[in-house]
Structure formats: C-alpha cells, structure tokens
Amino acid sequence: MSNKLVDLTGQRFGRLVVLKREKNHVYPGGQQHVMWLVRCDCGVEFIVRGVSLKNGFTKSCGCLREEVARRKAKAGIRGGKANAES
What is the rounded distance in angstroms from the CA atom of residue 36 to the CA atom of residue 23? Predict the structure, then answer.
C-alpha cells in the first residue's frame, strides 16, 4: 500500500467538489489526517478529512441528510418503515 498523496482537487464525491488541499490535522497522539476544502452543490464550503471523502462517509455539507429527512417525513416514514397509522 502506497503512502503517496493523491490529489483530489476537482474530484466530485456525492454533492461535494474538492477545491484545494488544506493543512493536515494532527491529533495529540501524532496521527495526521489530510484535509481538503470542499464546496457542496448548495454553495457551502467547509474542510473535511480526505478519508471521509474516499470512503463515502461525507457526501454533502448536511443538506443531503436534511433533504432525505424531509422526504421521509412527507412520506410518513419513520425508522425506515412506512407509518401504518397515516
């Protein structure tokens, strides 16, 4: 496995486009994470760990989660199942 950094600039992950690399985040124990500045399709910019982009954990600024929750609420779905009392 290679430790070579892959430039993610310009790549899309879900609703996010990578704008540029940021300074590494260093945890107290010395572990480092490569950080990237991203822009969501809704316009919000924020910094995220590269591993979170690559493994699919981060797909938006949070707008996707809100949209899915609204859609489920409108359909009467709770906990992944349709509400029988609707």
Answer: 8
Q: Is 29 within the bounds of a domain? A: yes
User: Between these two residues, 55 and 4, which has the higher pLDDT value?
Assistant: 55
Contact in structure between 34 and 49 (CB atoms under 8 Å): yes
**Strand pairing category for 16-26 and 12-13:** antiparallel
The domain total for the chain is 1
- Tell me if the pTM is above 0.90: no
Residue 4 lies in a domain: no
How far apart CA 33 and CA 26 sit, in angstroms, is 7
Q: How many CB atoms sit inside 10 A of residue 58's CB? A: 22
Domain that holds residue 70: 12-76
